[in-house]
Amino acid sequence: MNTQEGISRGGNSLAHTLGIYGLLGLGITTRSGVDIAATLGLGLGHCWVPPFDLYAPSWGGGAELLISVAIPVDRDTDFLVRSGAGIAYYTGDVPPAPEGVWQRPDPYLLHIHAPIELGFRKRF
Fold first, then answer.
1. Cβ distance 78 to 35 under 8 Å?
2. Angle in degrees, CA 89, 93, 96, rounded to 5
3. pLDDT tens digits for 27-74?
4. What tens digit of pLDDT does each residue of 81-110 get?
5. Quick check: 112 pLDDT over 60?
6. What are the contacts of 121-124 at 24+ separation with CB within 8 A?
7. CA-to-CA distance for 89 and 111, rounded, in angstroms?
8. Which domain of life is it from (predicted)?
């Protein structure tokens, strides 16, 4: 994923992230045929914030939770609603500056997303 922020003191900033998540999904079907499912994910990632010679690559973690509800419309068609949230936090480690030189703060990236999906699904 690439994240770009257009509002910053120095113009545009850009971050590159790469991560892997382990997912656990649980679901039930009610007597009326409504499917309800939840997916929980935990993961680890790596982030690069340019300029790369100034900010060293950093490690971070993330989590997400998605809830899905599928409501039967017909014998083989469902209306699907899915939503949730995900968050990831990466922090860097800037080497100490020599004495008398201004110490740059450690960079960090906080990424939050909240997807909303609506759709129809058909069983074959």
1. yes
2. 155
3. 999 998 899 999 999 999 988 777 666 667 788 999 999 999 999 999
4. 999 999 999 887 777 888 888 887 777 778
5. yes
6. 121/70, 121/77, 121/78, 121/80, 122/76, 122/77, 122/78, 123/76, 123/77, 123/78, 124/76
7. 6
8. Bacteria
The Cα–Cα gap between 121 and 39 comes to 18
Claim: this prediction has a pTM higher than 0.85: no
The answer to whether 94 and 109 are in contact (CB under 8 A) is no
Distance (Å, rounded) from C-alpha 36 to C-alpha 70? 7
Q: Which residue has the tokens 């990466």?
A: 90
Instruction: Give the separation between CA 108 and CA 57, rounded to whole angstroms.
Output: 10
